[in-house]
Design goal:
Elements: H1 4-12, E1 30-31, E2 37-41, H2 46-51, H3 58-69, E3 78-82, H4 96-113, E4 117-121, H5 123-129, H6 136-139, E5 144-146, E6 149-154, H7 157-162, H8 167-185
Parallel strand pairs: 2-3, 2-4, 4-6
Antiparallel strand pairs: 1-3, 5-6
The chain binds uracil.
Uracil is lined by residues 27, 41-45, 48, 54-55, 59-60, 82, 121.
């Protein structure tokens, strides 16, 4: 296993898939490397590609608001990363081979952080980390324990921007995350 510096350097130079040809920046991850809570999105969008920071575009602003509802701050209370570290052209879904090429970086991040809770942001992360058959509309907010880590998924903030009718359900899911955090810290 690599240390943080080795991992970030390896990731910055990665040519593991074709996305290295079009990226401006690798979006490694950000936040508290000792956090109990890890948030995992899908992959960088345009703003993230330009800045190298996850969730800084419109979805990121909503994510910050969602966190503040349960008194969490992205810098101190969680670590935020993505399944893939480089932006897919026109924000298409990441391909299986791109995910396969990239997933080891995330595994390493999880191993270094050792979070108590992982929250998948959206379908792609949930399918990769919880269950390949994951159905976000039916299963969001449900908890599973895997390798001593509690895992759940909520709607991706971009989905909530597109369809605000999903927000009340997400509010419930956020409250459940707050409860789970209390539980695992006991
Ligand atoms: N959407 C994601 O899934 N991740 C980001 O970092 C930004 C938008």
């Amino acid at each position: 296993m690599l240390d943080w510096m080795g991992l970030e350097q390896a990731c910055a130079q990665c040519k593991g898939c074709g996305l290295c040809e079009t990226r401006h920046n690798v979006v490694f991850g950000t936040g508290n490397q000792k956090a109990d809570l890890m948030l995992v999105g899908e992959g960088p969008g345009e703003q993230e590609d330009l800045t190298g920071v996850p969730f800084v575009g419109p979805a990121g602003q909503l994510l910050d608001d969602m966190l503040s509802i349960i008194d969490l701050d992205r810098k101190t209370d969680c670590y935020i990363a993505n399944i893939i570290k480089c932006r897919p052209p026109r924000n298409r879904d990441p391909l299986e081979i791109e995910q396969d090429a990239c997933i080891e970086y995330l595994r390493n991040q999880v191993a270094l952080i050792r979070p108590k809770i992982i929250v998948c942001l959206g379908r792609i992360a949930a399918m990769r980390l919880i269950d390949p058959k994951y159905r976000i509309t039916h299963q969001h907010g449900q908890w599973v324990e895997k390798n001593s880590v509690w895992m759940t998924a909520i709607y991706h903030p971009s989905a909530l921007l597109r369809d605000p009718s999903k927000r009340p359900e997400t509010f419930e899911d956020l409250l459940s995350i707050r409860e789970k955090l209390k539980e695992v810290r006991k």
